[in-house]
Amino acid sequence: MQTVDFSRLAIQPGQCLLDLGCGEGRHSLGAYVLHEQIDICGVDLSQQDIRVAAARFKDFEQPHKPHKHLAFARADGLRLPFADNTFDRVICAEVLEHIPDYRGMLREIDRVLKADGLLAISVPRAWPERICWALSEGYHTVEGGHIRIFDAAALRRDVERHGLQRYARHWAHALHVPFWWLKCLFWGNDDAFLVRQYHRLLVWDLMRKPRLTRVLERCLNPLMGKSVVMYFKRDMAR
After folding, report:
1. Residue 211 domain-assigned?
2. Most buried by CB count within 10 Å: which residue of 60, 82, 165, 173?
3. Number of domains into which the chain is organized
4. CA 168 to the chain's CA centroid
5. What residues does 16 pair with on adjacent strands?
6. Closest CA to 4 of 192, 172, 220
7. DSSP for 97-138?
8. Backbone angles phi, psi at 17, to 5 degrees
9. Rounded to 5 degrees, what are φ and ψ at 197?
10. What CATH number has the domain bearing residue 19?
């Protein structure tokens, strides 16, 4: 399940991409599959997630294509083990809502992003998220849960303070919103009938990608997409 639209990042042959807070590797693996000449580094604070991502990579690795590389490593997003101006592209998808010092992470992104680099950031959209918080305290108090609800305009201003400007925006995963509302309503009981049935629908949609649900989600995303995705480039006028 891809939240970031890679076509909006215009990745060029030979470029380096950082997937910051890569989790179990969905965007790192997506970038690897889609591009023929690319160096990708996926980092996350969770060693367990890194192990899962590395194991998944075994099913996608293309050793016969020597000009593409993917590596996963454990790293703290507030102290990235990379030199300044290392990456052409940075993805930070569904991460900042978990981070107490998210502005510190934005500073690290700014540091490792090249002068002509592009950045993609996604966070949960505010109004569907507020309903999740209202339905379940556990949703946002569980370890590793969402500790804040972002106002997208305020987050944009935080990013643009680093000399970046937004050049694109979209929303994603509208069909996932009712699932999370149900999950919050029946928090702690993933075997609840409605939760199980909606999860089956999402898995079917992910695997089959039927035209009907793809069109439906595109139409619903501007209204109720669960994630807001923003893309930034350096403001060369500054």
Report:
1. no
2. 173
3. 1
4. 15
5. 39
6. 172
7. GG-TTHHHHHHHHHHHEEEEEEEEEEEE-HHHHHHHHHH-SH
8. -120, 135
9. -70, -40
10. 3.40.50.150
Q: How far is CA 30 from each of CA 93, 120, 199, rounded to the nearest angstrom?
A: 13, 14, 22
Q: Are 201 and 178 in contact (CB under 8 A)?
A: no
Angle at CA 6, nearest 5°, toward 159 and 113? 40
Residues 6+ apart with CB under 8 A from 33: 60
- Mean pLDDT for 214-218 is 96
pLDDT digits (tens, 9 = 90+) for 107-144: 999 999 999 999 999 999 999 999 999 999 999 999 88
* Helix/strand/coil percent split, the chain, to 5: 45, 25, 35
The answer to whether position 119 is within a domain reads yes
Name the pairing type of β-strands 87-93 and 113-124: parallel
If you average pLDDT over every residue of the chain, what do you get? Answer: 96
For residue 187, being part of any structural domain is answered with no
Q: Which residue range is the domain that position 160 belongs to?
A: 6-125+140-173+224-234
Is 182 part of any domain? no
Cα(43)–Cα(114) distance, integer angstroms: 18
Percent of the chain exceeding pLDDT 70 equals 99
Helices and strands, counts by H and E, the chain: 9, 7
With H, G, I as helix, E, B as strand and everything else as coil, classify residue 7: helix
User: Nearest-CA neighbor of 89 among 38, 148, 22?
Assistant: 38
Closest by CA position to 97, among listed 135, 125, 70, 56: 125
